[in-house]
Amino acid sequence: MALGTVTASYELRFDTGRVCLDLLATTHPGERLGSVDALRAWITGAGLVPEGTPLAHADPSWLGAFRELRAHLAPLVRAPGSPSQGPALARVNDLARSAPPAPRAVPGTDGTLVRRLDGPPGRDALLGAVARDAVDLLTDPAARASLRRCEGDNCPIVYVDTSRGRRRRWCSSEVCGNRERVARHRRRTAALTRA
């Protein structure tokens, strides 16, 4: 399933700066991984596999496993030091042990080298790639210091702020940032009409 064919009911976003945070973002504003097709689109969109990689072998167990990993990532990223961090960290570390899918460079149709996988990616290999990204994020002091929570109303998304001056306020300027600008404009307009 190509990313462009994803329906609006599970529109996916990949703007947090890390694969593990993109997985966390699939809970907002509602469940974005509501089907195996949505998960396949997320796996491809997140860059875990090259575009066009067949994922027909993905089944409902994959959906449960990715949601479970997501649930373990949440306390590690959103509530460091919480009591649930111990079991969550143990599970993420366990999943990170799986080797990620093996890439190969092969000639494309025009002769340039393109990335392909050695074979169909397994569920554990893909989970391992996301878990390894989380381990890398959580153990890198500079990356951890760049973690921000979106300032948008009721937006739980956590992202890596790589902006100049580290002044990014929203997970997405087009989504939460635009909502804030519209709300500010409405407040100003309402204040002027009352005056």
TrEMBL record:
Taxonomic superkingdom: Bacteria
Protein name: CGNR zinc finger domain-containing protein
Domain Zinc finger CGNR: 147-188
Ranges where the record places region Disordered: 98-119
Transmembrane annotation, as ranges: none
Gene3D superfamilies (alphabetical): Jann2411-like domain
Source species of the chain: Streptomyces werraensis
InterPro entries (UniProt xref): ABATE, ABATE_dom_sf, Znf_CGNR
